[in-house]
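Journal club prep — side note

Before the paper discussion, L.F. wants everyone to see what a predicted structure for a comparable chain looks like in token form. Sequence:
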Amino acid sequence: MIGRNREAYQNPLPEAYFKAYEIIKADPNHELVVLVDDNDEVLASLQLTFLQYLTNIGGVKALVENVIVRQDLHGKGMGKQLLEWAINCSKTRGAHTIQLTTNKTRPGTKTFYEKLGFHASHEGMKMSLI
């Protein structure tokens, strides 16, 4: 799992997770979506953020992050359901573009996104600040 080295899987969770959740929940430019079953077990989630730009005539861009589906549920359509929701929500909010990134070590994930209509139009870059 890619996130294993950057997350703190502890019980109880570190307070930083709760603070981040409260910030996300309070900001109308963030949508945190969680699919749960009838027993409130988490099945899948994603975060959708709306970014205001000066370009595109002051347009709004939607950014999808952290699409996570429980490993035993891969291939069951939940990721597709979440992404379709994000696309429709972005259209409703008037976004001109929806974008996401995927780790280069996960070619199957890239193929999944391509089947939903995403295409690799730019080369993304990162710089770690910690």
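L.F.'s comment for the group: The chain has one domain: 2-115. Keep this in mind when we get to the figures.
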